[in-house]
Amino acid sequence: MIKIVGAGLAGSEAARFLAGRGVEVELIDMKPAKFTPAHSDENFGELVCSNSLKSDDVYGNACGLLKEELRRLGSLTMEAAEASKVPAGGALAVDRGKFSSFITEQIKNDPKIHITCQEAEELPEEGIIATGPLTSGKLYEAIERRFGGALHFFDASAPIVSAESVDFSQTFSADRYGKGTGDYVNCPMTKEEYERFVQELLSAEKAQLHSFEKGEIFEGCMPVEAMAARGIDTLRFGTFKPVGLLDGSGRRPYAVLQLRRENAEGTSYGLVGCQTNLKFSEQKRVFSLIPALKNAEFERYGVMHRNTYLQSPQILNADFSVKTQEGLYFAGQITGVEGYVESAMSGLLAGIHVYRRLRGKAPLIPEDTCVCGALSRYIAAKNAHFEPMNANYGVMRGDLAVKDKKEKRRLIAERALKEIEKFKDSI
Prior knowledge:
The strands form 4 sheets. Strands 10-11-13-14-9-15 form a 6-stranded antiparallel sheet. It has helices at residues 9-20, 62-72, 76-84, 96-108, 137-147, 191-203, 224-228, 280-287, 312-315, 340-358, 371-378, 405-426, and strands at 2-5, 25-29, 52-55, 85-86, 91-94, 113-117, 127-129, 151-156, 160-162, 172-173, 185-189, 216-217, 255-261, 268-271, 298-300, 304-309, 328-330. 32% of the residues lie in helices and 16% in strands. The protein is of the alpha/beta class. It folds into 2 domains: 2-149 and 310-426, FAD/NAD(P)-binding domain (3-Layer(bba) Sandwich); 160-305, Elongation Factor Tu (Ef-tu), domain 3, CATH 2.40.30. The longest helix has 22 residues, at 405-426.
């Protein structure tokens, strides 16, 4: 029986893949007896920071391409996303509750998966560690002792407001550049409203992080107040940019905060790109300065938490196995892949590699012409400045001499999907 510690996206992917190949799995997770500071749902595969899995554009975005690679490999995460998706323009966003419920049902109804509700305290001799970036307690200490420490970075989540508390008379529905079916609710601001918002954002009191160790803020989840501190127009050229958005009068606003559905019913909306570490009372005060949110009722406030990841180039092979301990694998964001889809990818691949090992087959790593292979190789390649990595074209093989950006990305995608089909046939 294969032990898998952690029932997040990575652990659930690995468990489902192995069970589907007839392998008995013990899936160990501390829920519902205990939760990390960032988790609250008893179900597996809980999404913490956002309900968006980012772009779904297979031929124009690396994360969109990764999603299609995973679909072709039979990803549980992609099945759950399809069953729980909500309108989000060109992005793939999900109803969090339905998403995690789908994963949990798939896991609990599989006769080959045996669930143990227990907090792991030590490293197993063999199996997969997929306890995520919030790994703590005795297991964290065991990992630190075994591998000489780990690295940390901070990331944050954005607030969620109730739909009935949004003043929709102060909004307009549109997707940037007309991509989509008007799925985003846009909250426009005038120059005066925007500048006042930024001023109050910068002066607002932040939550104290006494329980966290030293770490860096991850650029992909930079708190909105940290972004604003870089300059008065930083948000207006980033998270709040009005480019590609026209209001009902055909005019482009000075700045726009976008709201995205959190569930299929549209009763809750998340503030897009507004990850924050402000005190809860300050979040309500500052975000209520935006006209459409003047009476907003917050269903969840944004929080910041510490993420842990391994110095993987020193510890892991490209098949996510430990270099010094045959049969032990890591998966998920603790390996240094960053993002929901990337975490699911590492879990699915770890499951595939364990399965091959059980059958006496040598490790088989996808080529770096696909996102799966490129990220697998990234976490194991020598790197004196290793840090968490999202799906992106920069880590993929860049030997296509095509000048047109759109055409080049199309060719990259076609080549990647051919490699995934080849890898799938070899499993």
